[in-house]
Amino acid sequence: MIYLLLLVSFVLLGIDFYKWRSLIRPNIIFLLSFILASSIMMVNQKNWDVVLSNRFMIYTLTAILSFYIGTLVIDYFNVRKKSLVISESSKDGSLFIMASPSKLLFWIAIIAMIFYVLLIFRGIQLSTDFSFMLRQIYDRNVEHSGSNTFIVNQLVKILTAIANISFFQFLLDKYVVKTGKSQLTHFVVIIIFLLMAAISTDRNILLRFFIYCVVLWILFFTATNKGKITRAHFRLLAKLAFYVVLAVGIFYIFGKLKGYKSDFSRAISLYGGSGLYNFNLYLNESPPIDYKFGLVTFRSFLGVLGRLGIESLVHKGSVFSEFIIYTSKTGFVYESNIYSAMRPFVEDFGYFGMVIFPFIMGLFFETLYSWTRKSQYMFSWIFYALTIYPLAYFTILEQFFNRFHLGSLYEIGWVAIFYWYIRRIRVYLKEEINEGK
Fold first, then answer.
1. How buried is 38 (Cβ within 10 angstroms: 0-12 exposed, 13-18 middle, 19+ buried)?
2. What share of the chain in percent tops pLDDT 70?
3. Helix (H, G, I), strand (E, B) or coil at 325
4. What angle (nearest 5°) sits at the alpha carbon of residue 145, between those of residues 317 and 349?
5. Transmembrane stretches, by residue range (predicted)?
6. Rounded to the nearest 10 degrees, what angle do helices 264-285 and 229-257 cross at?
7. 144 Cβ partners below 8 Å, 6+ apart?
């Protein structure tokens, strides 16, 4: 059955790429998530004693087709132009100012990092063993369900937002304005972000930034290689393969820093493929009897309402799912507590959840992609690259409806503020200085 799942995923991916010639359409990213997870399950059939049920195949294929149909609905009703509609504002000299490194954002990042380090290491036992300190931070995060103080959370979002803007400026200079100026400031900001991500012990921050960088890079790369789509995509794939290997290596190292004992293949396999297989085990061994009707899928949003006093709607339960642990016939110790994005849909509405929620996601992300294609080098590109990660995570965790909370507003808000600064304020001040001369 694993081969059927791979076959369907590859066929749909091939159809979408043949029609649109894009590597970052929602369908492509969504299907690649299934191809990766299914491939990992195929490689680990003996180690995990993989047995896929008919129910799993029906539910999973339904989710894939529902998402795909959702994107097709937008394609059908949205009258698309064959070429990009480029805003006039993206053609003027303001791009040169936008691409220039910002000293203000650089110093904000430095100051934010200093305060973050002081606050995050407060209350733990200091040691020369960096891994020991990170383990204490990780255990503290688990104890508090992954939450920190408001100030610490905002410092993380500020540092991440500045790194996002810096990478956008770097690509704008590299592919569009090509000023030849030093990009050292951008690199320092990104290194500061990576250090913060390591200290936070939250590897999801790293993965989401990597997805953002890849998507934004492909947007710039393909926009500047029009008319050479075949060769451009071949070069993209070659470079992308290198960056994926690099990102996976960094991801593994970050895990080792906080004391994980798993070897490389075990760590990557369990993180990338166990979510989909755990969903199979969940359907076989403990399918829901009493549906929650949205309490699980919309847990985060309902939590916000709970803070406003509507506590009756808040789902009572642990943020983290239970572990599945067993020893296979080969002696492999299987241990994982991720169940893909599909488990909460099933918990809330059973099979109907496989129809409605992926369909809604298909509608949303295809609409977002359509908006992105209507401009170049604008905030829409940043927003799309920032918000597309739930599709890459689909076979790991639910990260779309689960992000309906104030934290997401803060994340997007800080990025919007810093983008507004480099796009409006800096351009305005530069024009005022030129007029004064």
1. buried
2. 86
3. strand
4. 35
5. 24-44, 56-77, 104-124, 184-199, 205-224, 236-255, 349-371, 378-397, 403-422
6. 90
7. none
Number of domains in the chain: 1
pLDDT at 89: 45
Q: Which are the contacts of 337, defined by CB distance < 8 A and separation ≥ 6?
A: 278, 320, 321, 322, 323, 324
Query: Which residues have CB under 8 Å from 134's CB, separation 6+?
Result: 198, 199, 201, 257, 258, 259
Angle between helices 2-20 and 26-43 (to 10 degrees): 150
pLDDT at residue 84, as a whole number:
45
Distance between CA atoms of residues 78 and 340, nearest Å: 30
Report the C-alpha gap between 422 and 185 in whole angstroms.
Answer: 15
Does 384 score more than 80 pLDDT?
yes
Identify the residue whose tokens are 């918990």.
347
| CB proximity list for 434: less than 8 A, separation 6 or greater | none
Residues in the chain: 437
Distance CA 269, CA 251 (A): 13
Query: What phi-psi label fits residue 262: left (phi over 0), alpha (psi between -120 and 50 degrees) or beta?
Result: beta
What would the mean pLDDT of 387-408 be, rounded to a whole number? 93
SS3 333: strand
Write the secondary structure of 29-78 as one string of H (helix), E (strand) and C (coil).
HHHHHHHHHHHHHHHCHHHHCCCCCHHHHHHHHHHHHHHHHHHHHHHHHC
Q: Identify the domain containing residue 184 by its residue range.
A: 2-436
- Say how far apart CA 404 and CA 63 lie, in whole Å: 21
CA–CA distance from 426 to each of 24, 210, 377 (Å)? 31, 27, 16
SS3 339: coil
pTM: 0.89
- The CA distances from residue 215 to 211, 279, 382, 386, in Å, are 6, 28, 9, 9
Pairwise CA distance, residues 269 & 48, whole Å: 10
d(CA 410, CA 418): 12
End-to-end CA distance of the chain: 72
